[in-house]
Amino acid sequence: MRRFLLVGLACIAATGCETTKVLPDHAHQVSAEDIYAFSRPSSSDDARIVFTQDSGAVSCFGAGMQVFLNEKLAAETSSGKSVTLYHQPGPVQLSIKNNMGCAGGDLRGLLLDLKPGYSYQVRGYRGTWDKAEPLLTTPAPFKYR
Q1: Does residue 54 carry a pLDDT above 60?
Q2: pLDDT value at position 14?
Q3: For 85-139, how does the pLDDT look when each residue is reduced to its tens digit (9 = 90+)?
Q4: Are 64 and 76 in contact (CB under 8 A)?
Q5: What is the 3-state secondary structure (H, E, C) of the chain?
């Protein structure tokens, strides 16, 4: 019996970091009260960033993520949800972190060089030790206007 318990705990630990990719078109949208900044374009040249958090109830107990643009809190997401943000063209640091006190609560980011009127899709997933990780995904950035 003890052996089965240990094997079960090992399986849970091994799958704890796994999340499932969610396509932005199939994700639920983050509610308006969870978007704090960058929710509307300020000019027709603004780039669009679509951030989608993977789903996974086991990973970090389904905790959400905080999304930052240049260290300013833009939105909070949850499992399987997506948020659309707008930012002026040029370099921007997109960072995310777990919004719950689970492992890997530090900021993890990537630098995006935003082109005027382009759309970028970023996936938020949990990697090793449940650390939140951002990843620029397909399709490649495209003109959305």
Answers
A1: yes
A2: 47
A3: 999 999 999 999 988 666 556 888 999 999 999 999 999 988 777 788 899 998 8
A4: yes
A5: CHHHHHHHHHHHHHHCCCCECCCHHHCEECCHHHECCCCCCCCCCCEEEEEEECECCCHHHHCCEEEEECCEEEEEECCCEEEEEEECCEEEEEEEEECCCCCCCCCEEEEEEECCCEEEEEEEEECHHHCEEEEECCCCCEECC
Measure the CA–CA gap between 55 and 81, rounded to whole angstroms: 8
Q: What is the Cα Rg of the chain in Å?
A: 16
Mean pLDDT across the chain: 84
Reported pTM? 0.83
**Burial class for 106, CB neighbours closer than 10 Å (0-12, 13-18, 19+):** exposed
